[in-house]
Amino acid sequence: MDVGLAQARQPLTTRSHYFEVEIVDPGEKCYIALGLARRDYPKNRHPGWSRGSVAYHADDGKLFHGSGIGDQFGPRCFEGDIMGCGIMFPRDYTLDHEDELDDWEAADARQKQGQVENVLYLNDEDEEGEDPEQEHEGRKVMVFFTRNGKIIGRREVVVPEGGFFPTIGMLSSREKVKVDLHPLSG
């Protein structure tokens, strides 16, 4: 079975942490997956099926996290639905590659930062007795998924070296999506 895979050139960062896909045409089976994957993710594997990836699948509403076996997660998605994926970074989280942003992208990100701060720290609730340093061991973040603007669920995952890249997969013929890598910019 052929896999159509598209991946953004830049990983998500604390400045640009969310993206969306509108299902323009579900094709024959709506085998559309939206998620995050490492830069060197295999181009012949649907997002979520292999190590270093997590993805929400439109056809069955399942979440796949580094395995070909998914967990029931949310509703199925259809033509016209907008699927979203983002990362809730801890407040003090830094990524090695964030310093590599070019000047234009950095200016663009600064402009948007105030607009996304309330989403960025959704999971920033300190619990008594927790060691804040221990919380960030292993570069864990909370990945969340949306359908038509509403959060449907989230999953704690470890960020692979180099970051998580927005990744979209399509498996059946005539599928068509519209991608927005910066939907929070207005």
TrEMBL record:
Recorded hits in Gene3D superfamilies, A to Z, give:
2.60.120.920
Q: Which Pfam families match?
A: SPRY
- Residue limits of the B30.2/SPRY domain? 1-186
Domain of life from the UniProt record = Eukaryota
SUPFAM superfamilies in alphabetical order:
Concanavalin A-like lectins/glucanases
This protein is called B30.2/SPRY domain-containing protein
Task: Please tell me the species this chain comes from.
Answer: Danionella cerebrum
